[in-house]
Amino acid sequence: MVAAMAKSASSMADEWETKVMDGGGCVELEVGDYMTRLAANIIAHTAFGSNYERGRKVFDQQLALINLHGQRAMQPLVAIPGYSLLPTPLNIQIFETQTAISNSLREIIQSRKDMVNKTKKSSYGDDLLGLMLTTTSEKNTSRVEKAQFDMQALIDNCRTFFFAGHGASSTFLTWTMMLLASHMNWQELAREEIKQVCGRGDCLLEANMLNKLKIVNMILNETLRLFPPFVALTRQAMKDVKLCVWDIPKGLSLHIPILAIHHDPNI
């Protein structure tokens, strides 16, 4: 996974370098778009391994679906019960996109199963999809557990991994780049630390190097403090809880303002 991250980031950096050279030393880039693409590349590699390109297709389809849902949320009639089931042009487009995503994932999953059956291999691979398929095929897995992790469950888990992974990651990386551009001294400190840990040649980052990047981790944590990808959370108490001087009864919903907490010196 770290290798996939490093390779994707290195490829993006090479592309930026080429653009800078072609632009005579100065070029304007939409960093947010690049970070979204970077997160998509890494997630596609992590989730689908050798089926990376087909995974990217699913990612693009899912982004399109998110935009369609956003358009429907802006319509004045969306609060009417059953409106999402009406055959409006937008609803039809949403249904067709959802179907296309499910079909694409079903093809990826089935092709992985067919490959293992054809080659008589014992492993489905070490990516996310392979691990899920291996779990459901193990001899000690009960029939009930296998039924719960059927084709639709596999599809839903893959979609959740894409949806939950790319938004927070790309937003986080974009804010990090913005802060590094605003504070050149920290940018230089981070660059020097990376050179010391990874070497000054073409060595890519490896998993055992991560804990040595103290300054980089400081920058990442401060970015998360100032610009958390999620500004608030809602949690429900599953039982009666005593929290400092407050009695939280079972069933109470708590709104946790992450952004406000991170910016409050007293907290």
N- to C-terminal separation? 35 Å
| Element string (H = helix, E = strand) | HHHHHHHHHEEEEH
What is the tally of beta strands?
4
Strand order of the largest sheet: 1-4
**How many domains comprise the coordinates?**
2
Q: Which geometry do the CA atoms define?
A: globular
> Main sheet, how many strands, which sense, barrel?
2 strands, antiparallel
Radius of gyration: 23 Å
CATH topology (level 3) name of the largest domain: Cytochrome p450
Low-confidence stretches: none
Structural class: mainly alpha
Average residue pLDDT: 85
Classified by CATH, the class of the largest domain is Mainly Alpha
Pfam family, one: p450
InterPro entries: Cyt_P450, Cyt_P450_E_grp-I, Cyt_P450_sf, Cytochrome_P450_Monooxygen
Main location: membrane
Organism: Sphagnum troendelagicum
Features:
267 residues, mainly alpha, Cytochrome p450, two-stranded antiparallel sheet, two-stranded antiparallel ribbon, 10 helices
Structural overview:
It contains ten helices and four strands. The longest helix is centred in the middle third of the chain and has 32 residues. The protein folds into two domains: 181 residues, Cytochrome P450 (Cytochrome p450); 30 residues, no CATH class. It has 267 residues and is mainly α. A hairpin with a 2-residue loop joins strand 2 and strand 3. It starts with a helix and ends in a 5-residue tail after the last helix. The strands form two sheets. It has a two-stranded antiparallel ribbon. The mean pLDDT is 85. This is Cytochrome P450. InterPro entries: Cyt_P450, Cyt_P450_E_grp-I, Cyt_P450_sf, Cytochrome_P450_Monooxygen. Its main location: membrane. Pfam families: p450. It is found in: Membrane.
